[in-house]
Amino acid sequence: MIAENISLDLRPAQKLLSLHSQHKTPYEQEFMGLQLVIYPNVFNPAFTKVTRMLAENLNTENSSVVLDMFCGSGVLGLLVKQQASKVVGVDASSEAIACAHENATRNLATSKTDFRVGNLWQGVLKNEKFDLIIANPPLLPATPETILEMAVADSPDMSLATQFIQGCHSRLNDSGRVLMTFSNASKVSFVDPLGHIEKLVEQSGLSLNIVAEKDYGYEIYRVLEFRKS
Fold it and tell me: Domain 11-228 - what CATH class?
């Protein structure tokens, strides 16, 4: 993983990557009542604070059709399967999608879930709209060099997050919402990371609300909610 800005501390992410790299074969993992299998090169939700933070703030009221962007193992989509009539999961990693399919089978959710390989909105059909879009994107402004690093590193200019936000408005039903994780790690690229996101959200025809936030010392994690303005 390459950080173009030398002030970005990659040590927490490197520790997390090292923990994942110890697993060379698929292994079992329980997470918030789900029985999961985690493949090598797929992030384990139990290893990350931000995934649990988002999971604990998944308000699925009036959310029949759900999109889980950057779905990884499929865990967030599976957590909302009881309330939703359909869950679509999209990830650029074919290994992650294979993992998500197996987890849907293990948790008796294959009739409600549709996991697809795709780069952002390329994995979504043109006529599809959603009541709830969940996103736990890569949070670091760094260049990934491996498949596993793609789960934590976006790009120096956070282009994935930008493209995701810009595409949300046209994919939401009128009363739809977006729940997205966000970190202040992008302060090495933007003077005011949250202000940058707020401006981008507003330019995309959405309004922003902070649902949850917690300072872990090395990063401040937030769960952001977007709605149509």
Answer: alpha beta
Domain layout of the chain by residue ranges:
11-228
Distance of alpha carbon 43 from alpha carbon 32, whole angstroms: 16
> According to the model, what pLDDT value does residue 129 have?
97
What is the spatial order of strands in the sheet that 172-183 belongs to?
A: 113-117, 86-91, 65-69, 130-135, 172-183, 220-228, 206-215
pTM over 0.90: yes
Angle (nearest 5°) at CA 38 between 165 and 49: 55
Rg of the chain over Cα atoms, rounded to whole angstroms, equals 16
User: Beta 172-183 vs 220-228: how paired, if at all?
Assistant: antiparallel
Task: Give DSSP secondary structure letters for 54-123.
Answer: HHTT---TT--EEEEET-TTSHHHHHTTTT-SEEEEEES-HHHHHHHHHHHHHTT-TTTEEEEE-SGGGG
**What does pLDDT average to over the chain?**
92
Q: What is the pLDDT of residues 165-187, one digit of tens each?
A: 999 999 999 999 999 999 998 88
The rounded distance, in Å, linking the Cα atoms of 136 and 47 is 14
